[in-house]
Specification:
alpha/beta, 186 residues, 6 helices, 40% helix, 6 strands, 16% strand, 6-stranded parallel beta sheet
Amino acid sequence: MAQNTALLIIDMINKMDFNGGDDLLEHSKDIVGPINELRKQAKHNGIPVIYVNDNFNLWQDNVDELIEECKQGPGETIINEVLPEDNDYFIIKPKHSGFFGTQLSILLEQLQVNKLVLTGVAGDICVLFTANDAYMRDYDLWIPKDCIASEKTNDNDNALQIIKRSLFANIRSTKQTTMEQAFKVQ
């Protein structure tokens, strides 16, 4: 299996109660299954699963309270399908990138990770910004195109092209490659 790898699930714990949230919610439904399949593979192979999530201005809340607050919005159905397990990591971020203002770099270093699988929403914002920061830190990247969603399909496709062209990431879907092959094939 892919050694020194971590699976990041970005902003899937999400109220989706903002302008454009209905579109993002609709597009997110398609990625839940592939993300859960990757989570299952990761768990089976001892690969850490790390949730990287917006704080929704809940600076003093804990993870359970953040999840409960997010369940109050239209995103509850998605949240219930992707809830973190007790042995998963959960990092709360203040901005778009999972690296900005968080302990993600320290955690990845302690886990001896140099390969990242990025999944989640929004593909054209938080996934893209996290991917860019990961690339700048020399991580190998697999961002399966069937595991990210944005409000608009065209914006998601454009983000994927930037990720492939400028960050040299593998964007093959989970149907086209496995975690074992993802970092060998570009």
